[in-house]
Amino acid sequence: MDFLKFEDFVENRYEYIFDFHEGLAKVQNEQGLYGYINKEGKEVIPCRYYDAWNFQEGLAKVQNEQDLCGYINKEGKEVIPCKYKAGKYFQEGLAKVRNEQDLYGYINKGGEEAIPCRYYDAWDFHEGLAVIRNKQDLFGYINKEGKEVIPCRYYDAWNFQEGLAVVQNEQGLYGYINKEGRKIVPCKYYDVWSFQGGLAMVQNEQGLYGYINKEGRKIVPCKYYDVWSFQGGLAKVQNEQGLCGYINKEGREIVPCKYKDGEDFQEGLAKVQNEQGLYGYINKEGREVISCGCLGKYARAGYFHEGLAVVRNKQGLCGYINKEGKEIVPCKYKYGEDFQEGLAMVKNKQGLYGYISKEGKEVIPCKYLTAGDFHEGLARVSVDEGLDKFIDKNGNVKLDLNVYASRLNLGDKSITIKSDTKEGLAQQKLEVIKEIKKGLNNSENTVDKELNSYQKKIGSIK
Hints:
Elements (H helix, E strand, L loop, with lengths): L5 E7 L3 E6 L2 E5 L5 E4 L5 E7 L1 E2 L7 E4 L5 E4 L5 E7 L1 E2 L7 E4 L5 E4 L5 E7 L1 E2 L7 E4 L5 E4 L5 E7 L1 E2 L7 E4 L5 E4 L5 E7 L1 E2 L7 E4 L5 E4 L5 E7 L1 E6 L2 E5 L5 E4 L5 E7 L1 E2 L7 E4 L5 E4 L5 E3 L7 E8 L2 E6 L4 E4 L5 E7 L1 E2 L7 E4 L5 E4 L5 E7 L1 E2 L7 E6 L2 E5 L5 E4 L1 E9 L2 E7 L2 H17 L5 H14 L5
Antiparallel strand pairs: 1-46, 2-3, 3-4, 4-5, 6-7, 7-8, 8-9, 10-11, 11-12, 12-13, 14-15, 15-16, 16-17, 18-19, 19-20, 20-21, 22-23, 23-24, 24-25, 26-27, 27-28, 28-29, 30-31, 31-32, 32-33, 34-35, 35-36, 36-37, 38-39, 39-40, 40-41, 42-43, 43-44, 44-45, 46-47
């Protein structure tokens, strides 16, 4: 029986595994078909679809071999048959779909066409109304009963936001209408943006930007060369010299235009860059709580997430600082992600990934070839190329999707056996040996001795 030499190997059960959403993860098998597994690794929806999307609001869009789309629930039932050429996620109870005649309509979660497919283009519902486009390339709005409440007469139209929507006239100028279709702000601006926090950005014929309120009154005159949306009560603006500052909703410059660049406020602070190219952080009063000089040793600095921000030193190594500018995690990593669910993914100098706590402790050592962010308490990692596992926040393997296999070559033929566990593979090897034993012309004692020897050897899987 010396000729019975098993070649052991490990392979992934799936070609690709996606993150968990609403308790299920999309997977793709070696035939390129998609299905879904639960957090125990059970394939609750078989791999039979040619494309698939994440679950959202209890349903997932799937695509069959005819490239037609439908929707399934978490039990795998096609609640909406695959009969549409395209479909979107459900929003406000309805999903946009496109039929085989390339016309758009909307379905509800029961699969009924709440609004028949009769439009040449359509958008998702926002605030109870959806943009539609007719055969003449004009835009209007319908309600959830499919009634055209605002006729198709505009050359462009945007989703409603804060009760008003952007529309464009035949001269290419923009204005705003309410949900009754009444023009609140005449079409006179060359560029605009949707309302956010009661104000909207507009551009005049000289190319300068300002802000208007919902009555169309200019709150901030058009005097800036660029402007951004309000975030937390402040908005970034840029003057004619290309320098940035921040204004409040009354138009007062809380932070003078003196920075080479600036980012939106996040967790109460905004990253800024001075004219010397150094980074710092300001609060909403405009005070540099972390001065640009203090961060002079860093080449890059990121947003704050969960109280810490990634920084990269001039040697290209990453660490983390707190909101006082103190380096909580030393710059010793080749790469660092933002904190998410209390942990941050990092990559060490050897190119291996792990996870650190906010105190900088490697709670999950850097030992993985690949790693992803935590989603729903689990993160996808691999220790060998293409061999994925899901771990919890303590580094425990909660889901092992590897398949343990062994190949036995017998002359010009071979036998391959597979199992989800090492123990299962060992048992299958014994069964193979026993089957071969039946056809051998050998003494019982010698075969038993060989079997015992193989039984010990197969406990170690490569």
